[in-house]
Design goal:
Strand content: 25-35%
Low-confidence stretches: 321-327
Membrane topology: Peripheral membrane protein
Protein name: Flagellar motor switch protein FliM
Keywords: Bacterial flagellum, Cell membrane, Cell projection, Chemotaxis, Cilium, Coiled coil, Flagellar rotation, Flagellum, Membrane
Number of helices: 8
Order of helices and strands: HHEHEEHHEEEHHEHEEE
Largest sheet: 6 strands, antiparallel
Helix content: 25-40%
Strand order of the largest sheet: 1-5-6-3-2-4
CATH topology of the largest domain: Chemotaxis protein chec
Structural class: alpha+beta
InterPro entries: CheC-like_sf (IPR028976), Flag_FliM (IPR001689), FliN-like_C (IPR001543), SpoA-like_sf (IPR036429)
Number of domains: 2
Mean pLDDT: 81
Organism: Planococcus notacanthi
Length: about 325
């Protein structure tokens, strides 16, 4: 006989199903979209080294701008990332001022751009103003171009010093541009390093960006490893310490004696010595003179006269020894 569920049985089953806890929702996977057009050509190790270099650059730039603008300036690294050249150009703010420069022995051009707020507050301060941001629709005047060229050139000196721990560069400003669309220094899909520096001048905030194409840095990528950078830093410190030690030694005073010869006499004869007496030495008249530096034998020399005064001329470097040990 077939069992048939009554209406009461069905309601009981449905009620029991409603009381059951829902199954845990499966945790969503963390998926990142990868754009094959945007090839990542710099390792994280190289990115970190570039960050350290430009943190030093930001400190140097802060000191320079503080002195030149005579106001509170604070610059720090906001981000160091790799993007396509097209993406960099697309995000350059309108009315930014761009300085195209080269830095031998690197091959190729790089860009440093000042956002409008930073650029125009610098113009106002350097030309005697209070640091007001002036909105301009017309092109830069000759005076403004001369001022911004000087600012870029001095900024590149700080760039050179910041990179000295990795490579000795000779940066040179090539041109000033206000329209990023006119820059054709790299193909649109070329990977570039974009260094974003956040800048605050007085009460005004803005950005200073640096664009370093991969093709420019390609030949020095091995030098951008943390190991190589730290080794260069240690070498620079050691060189500085050595130079400081050498400079300190240059001012050290030493006692120098020229010994013509030696002789042994009795105490009675020594007490009876008078003007005109002769003491026979153990050296002949043409024997070399021994030169002592702080009582240590350092040189042999020849006696003579220089500018009317008795002098010796060094003829030989000898092994150091104590005069008291010699016979």
């Amino acid at each position: 006989m077939t069992d048939v569920l009554s209406e009461e049985n069905i309601e009981t089953i449905l009620s029991a199903m409603g009381q059951q806890e829902p199954k845990a929702v499966e945790k969503e996977r963390n998926v990142q979209v990868y754009d094959f057009k945007k090839a990542l050509r710099f390792s994280q190790d190289q990115i970190r080294t570039l960050s350290r270099i430009h943190e030093n650059f930001a400190r140097l730039l802060t000191s320079y701008f503080s002195a030149q603008l005579r106001t509170y300036v604070q610059i720090h690294v906001d981000a160091v990332e790799q993007v396509s050249y097209h993406e960099y150009i697309r995000n350059v703010r309108k009315k930014s001022i761009l300085g195209v420069f080269e830095a031998m022995p690197l091959q190729g051009s790089m860009v440093m751009d000042f956002s409008p707020n930073v650029a125009y507050v610098m113009f106002d301060r350097l030309l005697g103003g209070q640091g007001t941001v002036l909105e301009k629709d017309n092109e830069l005047t000759e005076i403004e171009i001369s001022v911004i060229e000087r600012v870029f050139s001095k900024s590149l000196e700080s760039f050179q010093e910041a990179w000295s721990s990795v490579l000795k560069l000779t940066p040179e400003l090539k041109e000033i541009e206000v329209n990023p669309q006119f820059l054709t220094m790299s193909p649109p899909n070329e990977t570039v390093i974009l260094v974003k520096l956040s800048a605050r001048i007085g009460e005004v905030e803005g950005f200073v960006n640096i664009c370093l194409p991969h093709v420019v840095l390609e030949h020095i990528l091995p030098k951008l490893s943390a190991k190589h950078w730290l080794a260069n830093q240690k070498k620079a410190v050691e060189t500085h310490e050595l130079e400081a030690l050498e400079e300190k030694l240059q001012g050290t005073k030493m006692e120098i004696k020229a010994v013509l010869g030696k002789s042994t006499i009795e105490l009675g004869d020594f007490l009876n010595l008078k003007n005109g007496d002769v003491i026979r030495l153990n050296e002949s008249y043409d024997a070399p003179v021994t030169l002592l530096v702080d009582n240590k034998t350092k040189f042999h020399a020849q006696p003579g006269v220089s500018k009317g005064r008795m002098a010796v001329q060094i003829t030989e470097v000898t092994v150091a020894g104590d005069l008291s040990d010699e016979d």
